[in-house]
Amino acid sequence: MSLPIAGAAVTDQPALTIFCHDAPYPPHHGARVDMSRRIEALHALGVRLQIVAWWCDSGSHVALEHSLRAVADDVLVLDLARDLPTKIRKSLLLARYPWEEASRWLPPAQVAQVVARVEAFAPDAVMLDGLHGARLALAVCDRLLLPLLYRSHNIEYVYARRLYATSRGRQRLRRFFTAWRAEPLETRVIEHAARVYDCSADDMKFWEARGYSHFRWHPPIVRVEALVADGHTPSHDVGFIGNLTMDNNVDGITWFLSDVLPRLTARHGAVRVLIAGRSPVPALQALCESLPDVTLIADPDDVRPLYAQARVFVNPVRQGSGIKVKTLEMLGLGVTFVTTREGASGLPDDIRDQLPIADDADTFAAELHAQLSAADAGTADAVAIPDAFSPQAQSVIIDDIRELSRPAIPGAT
Fold it and tell me: Collapsing DSSP states into helix, strand and coil, what is residue 205?
């Protein structure tokens, strides 16, 4: 961790300190995509940014700091300490906090340094982007009397319980402690926050039903662009692009290859399938290699050109929470796709109603066959992206910062 910076210059632009629960760069999965695009949009809108990011990977975070310094006025990267005394201290914290929170414990002296660093930057507000690392963000807000903005990526405790319910083997213990005590921590953050920006319309309704009224629906930014030039012929029929280590993606792709694909080929004939993504788990890699018409591309440098390499894409996830960024990516790129109901969760009804959705293998195969046939005939329909998904929609955060940091008027009601 670096030393505190000198006092920040006062400007008319709002200043915001963002505590990122994970490194925003490289943006190789949904939460990182959401964080990095919001940071870039706020920077473009003139917000002075201080980024405090947790580094959960091994190796150097020099590249992360370089990426963040391009969009932020001040950058602080916090390593997850892995020495034995710290591991023992974190293990004791599991009696009170979930795994991901306990793993982000800092000694009091380091917490004081973070507080001093934020105080020197003099932000108007603090944003906690994702639940993990909440105690540090709360400590900063309490000591500096700053309003807290919370970016909710999921109903975290519900998502953690679902992951635990489907986990097996050695990961089951960690999944238990990830779900353990997550609900009281999440509730504490929501009750402390002045504003909560929920990525999912469905999740926001869940919390509003519990009596909370300070939520805003704030979906991830969708970049609308066309990748496919006229006359381009994709090399595959069906494609999936996503993180191939995440449980919900692995489960969904396994189900698709094992249950849906045989039904699809019975209807449509031979189908060439492209699977691409980060760090495929061994079982999924073995399954792909056992199927002659399936191509697996592991750890591609850039996934976006791959969206031009299949005629129809799929999002077959069957578990999760929040909103699925891969679904938003496909909407923004204008590609044809079929999704499960879970893959479309969190979207507003007017978008969800336009999507081909199927939850059982027979229906999913039938929808894919119909979309492949429509793609052959050039009749696939695009879905309009509302302004709420644009970078300019981040201006609501600026409005909230200004409102929350405005001095109270004596006698006002």
Answer: helix
